Amino acid sequence: KDWLIHGRKSSKNTSKRKRQQLHHKRTQDNRAKAAGKIVDREVVRGHIGQVHALAISSDGKFVASGGEDRTIIIWNASSGEYVDRFKGHRDGVSCLTFRRGTHQLYSGSLDRTVKIWDVDEMAYVDTLFGHQSEVMGIDATSRERCVTSGRDRTVRFWKIPEESQLVFRGGQVGSMDTVTLLNDNMFATGSDDGTIAVWAATRKKPLSVVSSQSSEAPLPWVSSVGALRNTDLLASGGSEGFVRLWKVDSNTSKLSLIGKVDAKGIVNGIAFGGRGRYLVIAVGQEHRLGRWTRVPEAKNGIMLVRLDLDEDKVRGIDEDGDDDDDNGDDGGDNFLVPASREKVQQPVADSHDNESDSDHGSGIKKIKGKGKVV
Fold first, then answer.
1. Among 4, 96, 138, 150, fewest CB within 10 Å belongs to which?
2. pTM of this structure
3. How many CB atoms lie within 10 A of CB 314?
């Protein structure tokens, strides 16, 4: 009798678990259908939910994407095909970057950790602990080092082979939401209190701090910074309707404003492309991680602005912050090829519209046009 009762209970429990699993699967399928991810009953391999971060390997072979579904997906950059998926973060993936010259991937997450992945082997490598709040920004050097910024108001410079980290505080009272490397030993951060700071790995305090946002901006927030690696050129953007271009002084590391580019909306990402010939700006109506403010007249998309660099004025900065005689030549790469040397088949900006000449020793001869959102 006891055996029969026990058997009946087990059968009921098993059926209940099966119903729960089926309900869970149907819920996931319904969410996928609502997101347009199911076609002819086949689930397209992609993210469920928002995509928060993208990174491309330096050889252009792989693209990595991370999102609120806590996963990282590796894509073939040429074909756009799904390659593999990494799982391990306990919260959304907020930032990604590849180590230069390799297929080693670094990911930062809202779970306060940084993880290392080997894309060649499609394997997990290690987890870096230290941040006391969400990791917001990340960048990597050509060596086994990376720099991260977070809402705990710190920047951390990770020396992975040595299993050590350098912690930087001060200069910014708000969350450090974005970080970019100037070279292997210098980096810049942007904060939600509207400031930009330039740092060196050899000093605990910032080399220089400047307020980049105007008081008229609806949200005094530097949401993105980007640098032309191994040069003195830095860009920053927020919610004020344009991207600022800065020159980093090679002796004092102070920032000098050298130009502006109209960018209506929230600037969620900045990168220099084509070896400095283009400025790539990700703009949107809202911030990529939240709905704190909205610019309804803005378009969600990518804006490309063509730059005309002057090699005689754009200078490289070595790891000590001094002038680099080889103009930032790192391993034979020339980062300072002017746009005029290569014919652009489809210019992304009208060269006769709002041309801005600059003669501040910045190395930018012209900012050609306002750019177009694509």
1. 4
2. 0.74
3. 23
Q: pLDDT tens string for the chain (374 positions)?
A: 443 334 444 444 556 666 766 676 667 666 655 555 544 444 557 898 889 999 999 999 999 999 999 999 999 999 999 999 999 999 999 999 999 999 999 999 999 999 999 999 999 999 999 999 999 999 998 899 999 999 999 999 999 999 999 999 865 567 889 999 999 999 999 988 888 999 999 998 999 988 744 444 444 688 999 999 999 999 999 888 889 999 999 888 999 999 899 998 999 999 998 778 889 999 998 888 877 788 888 889 999 998 887 655 555 555 554 444 433 333 333 333 323 323 222 323 333 333 444 444 455 555 554 555 65
Q: Which residue matches tokens 């086949």? A: 42
Element (H, E) at 4: helix 2-34
Sign of CA pseudo-dihedral 176, 298, 36, 23: positive
- Residue 283's SS3 state is strand
CA-wise closest residue to 265 among 289, 240, 292: 240
Distance CA 47, CA 100 (A): 25
Over the range 264-286, which residues count as b (16 or more CB within 10 Å of their CB) and which as e?
Answer: bbbbbbbbbeebbbbbbbbbbbb
Report the run of H or E that residue 140 belongs to, with start and end.
strand 135-140
Q: Give the pairing of strands 356-357 and 62-67.
A: unpaired
